Amino acid sequence: MFSVTYPETASGFSFENCRRNALLETKGLSIPKATKTGTTIVGITYKDGVILGADTRATEDTTVADKNCEKIHYLASNMYCCGAGTAADTETTTQMISSQLELHQLYTGRVCRVATANQMLKQYLFRYQGYIGAALILGGVDLAMAVFESGWNKDIDEEAGIKLVRDAIAAGVFNDLGSGSNIDVCIIRKGSTDYRRTYDEANKKGVRQQSYRYPRGTTRVLSTKVLDVEEVSVQRVEPERMDTA
Questions:
Q1: What is the pTM assigned to this prediction?
Q2: Which positions are catalytic?
Q3: Hey, what domains does the chain have and what are their CATH numbers?
Q4: In b/e form, how buried is each residue of 156-184, taking b as 16+ CB within 10 angstroms?
Q5: pLDDT tens for residues 94-116?
Q6: Which residues pair with 60 in a beta bridge?
Q7: Which secondary-structure segment (H or E) carries 103?
Q8: Concatenated DSSP letters for 150-195?
């Protein structure tokens, strides 16, 4: 057992807990680390189609860069793609594949199969040997996807499927620093799609309980230096105009 005593300060913010934690670390205590595994994206099949889900937080290391970015990307009328990894890479990759699918459809005169988009994505990502930071979930009406956790069954209806996807994304939002903010959902049916942007505001902002405007003197001023500044004004003089006869 040990105790630490800190001198009281007349005013200003208190950093006693920071000094305490630093001292405890020197004594061998392991400070718990926050979990950060990245984006949370999911996809399931139900009896009439596919449901995709994603959170909306974009991070730069420990900084939240965008609280409401789009991670469900349009590929074609019958398929969408969830993207995790580097935001610029996922956006560029999905836009390029979407363009190729549109050209393919115009050339063949028929709707592209999801297997076609899957092959295009695999070939493009393999070409760069991991240097493109894009982890993707592709979903469409003609692709049978893998079993999605314990809540899924082959006869699940649309309402239950949406709830399952919402709950899966919410688990990532509340347990992972790389996921956060809102939940987007995309329902892909035979012949139609329904992209629900901000389907659920999972992590709602709390109501401010008090004012955070601190009065003068809260932070103690250690030293003051006054500089005399002489104001100098510059007046522009127009050149004389010479009239010619």
A1: 0.61
A2: 39
A3: 41-200 (3.60.20.10)
A4: beeeebbebbbbbbbebbeebebbbbbbb
A5: 999 999 999 999 998 888 888 89
A6: 63
A7: helix 87-108
A8: TT--TT--HHHHHHHHHHHHHHHHHH-TTS-S-EEEEEEETTEEEE
